[in-house]
Design goal:
Number of domains of chain B: 2
Distance between the termini of chain A: 28 Å
Shape of chain A: globular
CATH topology of chain A: Sufe protein. Chain: A
CATH superfamily of the largest domain in chain B: Type I PLP-dependent aspartate aminotransferase-like (Major domain)
Radius of gyration of chain B: 22 Å
Number of helices of chain A: 5
Oligomer: heterodimer
CATH topology of the largest domain in chain B: Aspartate Aminotransferase, domain 2
Strand content of chain A: 15-25%
Strand order of the largest sheet of chain B: 6-12-11-10-9-7-8
Strand order of the largest sheet of chain A: 3-2-1-4
Distance between the termini of chain B: 55 Å
Strand content of chain B: 15-25%
Shape of chain B: globular
CATH architecture of the largest domain in chain B: 3-Layer(aba) Sandwich
CATH architecture of chain A: Alpha-Beta Complex
CATH class of the largest domain in chain B: Alpha Beta
Structural class of chain A: alpha+beta
Number of helices of chain B: 14
Order of helices and strands of chain A: HHEEEHHHE
Largest sheet of chain B: 7 strands, mixed
Number of strands of chain B: 19
Helix content of chain B: 25-40%
Largest interface: A-B, 23 and 19 residues
Radius of gyration of chain A: 14 Å
CATH class of chain A: Alpha Beta
């Protein structure tokens, strides 16, 4: 049960139940879909870019607690950040959920640290990273559906 | 087919307790003795006893099947057919003997009708490619149902795309039963093929395949049954169903992966062109012309999975020894028991409540995604499947992105159903 408690931390359960920025952005400059066919996680991520700065982020869709909480935490984390900073955070987050020590001190990761338990559950890494992969593709400009399978 | 004498059927069934009707003894199904045959059931997962409830995906293998494959490679391995040496003849004999085992298992007319494949999927693709490409023309129609596995959807879609035919779908009721009146309306002189599953992997629904076949034949169509979920749970009698093709997989009926059977009506197989070209499927080859081999070899190009076939034979012997009807009765008891216990869980909804069901329970739990359920149950050593079960159109029909699915096999127990219920309470605990 301890592993489970690590995985389903309060922050994750909370963001799953009450996802932040869970809305369409009608004036989004980017809109990209992310899809995980294995479990059916399916999200659309909306980004409102102001030059190089992510002015606003929204998302809609459905999926497991890990994927939804990750999309929610991501949206609040990258809002107001530059594109480069968002990409750097994705890199750190990816290292965190795959158990790479280079992710750095969890204390400095803020709410992202809640996902540290994912590294003990390899089958759930793609759930945690789906929204981030989708964000990455949106920022890179590719418009196709992102799949983490 | 195996060299050992068949075990007495009653060895798996304990002493008669009460006399049944007509004075026949009622034999008790001895699940503990069956469990002892499956070595994997003794292993622990995260330090907890394995509760394996993913039998619709694949079943575990009894020691008899494992030993048979080991014995094949240890003592009998050689390539089949045409060999004059001792081992080749021995391997051929063992390989061909399984055709007879399969023939009996599904009550086919002849060994010529038994084609070994890689599994159900290949069997269906074989029919779609070999029969479909020859007989299906633009404007024709292929009928499948709304509850099919992707393996009984995509090959027909590909056939329709290639030939200009149209795919028609038999709709399903809220309980997961095919709407036979709607099916009757879909059948026309344009219908060339009707393909349905014997039982649904996602819902458990057992389809009225005999009725479906009769109606298709009245319309002049051929009937293909996806038997992947039929073979482990239902006595198969292809002559009684009166279908034209029946495909099933070895690994879902306690045999090895990578081996399956396509049964086809002999007269239809005779007229069908080959599926793949290569060795074994020919009588003679020149650069100008090839003469194809007789049935069933015409459809078995290349060196087959010989070890898989002898393993399948051992699995069918094992299942027949216990009796598929005894297995079905045991599984039905588990289905009824688990359905009742699961229904007691607040917020749990069972998807698929057909009157006639195999031991498959698909469910959703309010407020918790199936994938999270799967992870939490896994930590308890309980293996269930979560996701769309390769039946995405069906998930859309029931308006769920995914479900959890517990599927029971011959070795499962009521105690394991209880463990599932306890596990689901734990899910509730985590999610508050």
């Amino acid at each position: 049960m301890s592993g489970l408690r690590e995985l389903y931390q309060q922050v994750i359960l909370d963001h799953n139940k009450n996802p932040r920025n869970f809305k369409e952005l009608p004036n989004a400059t980017k809109r990209v879909e992310g899809y995980n066919p294995l479990c059916g996680d399916h999200y659309t991520i909306y980004i409102d870019l102001d030059g190089n700065v992510i002015r606003d982020v929204g998302f809609t869709g459905n999926g497991c607690a890990i994927s939804k909480a990750s999309a929610s935490v991501m949206s609040s984390t990258v809002k107001g950040k530059s594109v480069e900073e968002a990409e750097r955070l994705f890199d750190v987050f990816h290292k965190l959920v795959t158990g790479d020590a280079a992710a750095g001190d969890p204390a400095e990761l803020g709410r992202l640290a809640a996902f540290s338990g994912v590294s003990e559950f390899p089958a759930r890494v793609k759930c945690a990273t789906l929204a981030w992969h989708t964000l990455h593709n949106a920022l890179e400009g590719s418009a196709q559906v992102v799949s983490t399978e | 087919m195996s060299a050992e004498p068949m075990e007495d059927r009653r060895s798996r069934l304990s002493d008669p307790t009460t006399p049944g009707q007509a004075g026949l003894p009622v034999l008790q199904y001895d699940v503990e003795s069956i469990r002892e045959d499956f070595p994997i059931l003794r292993r622990l997962v995260y330090g907890k006893p394995l509760v394996y409830l993913d039998n619709a995906a694949t079943t575990q293998k009894p020691q008899q099947v494992i030993d048979r494959i080991v014995r094949y490679y240890s003592e009998e391995n050689s390539n089949v057919h045409r060999g004059v040496h001792f081992l080749s003849q021995l391997a051929t004999e063992k390989y061909e003997a399984v055709r007879t085992t399969v023939k009996r298992f599904i009550n086919a007319n002849s060994e010529k009708e038994i084609v070994f494949t890689r599994g159900t999927t290949e069997g269906i693709n074989l029919v779609a490619r070999a029969w479909g490409r020859k007989y299906v023309k633009p404007g024709d129609e292929v009928i499948i149902s709304a509850i099919e596995h992707h393996s009984d959807i995509v090959p027909w879609q590909m056939l329709c795309q290639d030939t200009g035919a149209t795919l028609r779908i038999i709709p399903v009721s809220d309980s997961g039963e095919l709407l036979i009146d709607e099916y009757a309306r879909l059948l026309t002189s344009r219908t060339k093929i009707v393909a349905v599953g014997h039982a649904s992997n996602a819902l458990g629904t057992i389809n009225p395949v005999k009725q479906i076949a009769a109606m298709a034949h009245d319309a002049g169509a051929i009937v293909v049954i996806d038997g992947a979920q039929g073979a482990p749970h239902i006595t198969i009698d292809v002559q009684d169903i009166d279908c034209d093709f029946y495909a099933f997989s070895g690994h879902k009926v306690y045999g090895p992966t990578g081996i399956g059977v396509l049964w086809g009506r002999e007269s239809i197989l005779e007229e069908m062109p080959p599926y793949e070209g290569g060795g074994d499927m020919i009588l003679s080859v020149t650069f100008e012309k090839t003469t194809y081999n007789a049935l069933p070899y015409k459809f078995e190009a290349g060196t087959p999975d010989i070890a898989g076939v002898v393993g399948l034979g051992a699995a069918l012997d094992y299942v027949s020894n216990i009796g598929i009807e005894n297995i079905a009765a045991h599984e039905h008891d588990l289905l009824v028991y688990a359905t009742r216990r699961l229904s007691e869980i607040e917020g749990l909804r069972i998807i698929g409540t057909a009157a006639n069901k195999a031991s498959v329970i698909s469910f959703v739990l309010e407020g918790v995604h199936p994938h999270d359920i799967g992870t939490i149950l896994d930590q308890e050593g309980i293996a269930v499947r979560t996701g769309h079960h390769c039946a995405q159109p069906l998930m859309m029909r029931f308006n769920v992105p995914a479900t959890g699915r517990a599927s029971f096999g011959m070795y499962n127990t009521r105690a394991e159903a209880d463990a599932l219920v306890t596990g689901l309470h734990k899910v509730r605990e985590v999610f508050g």
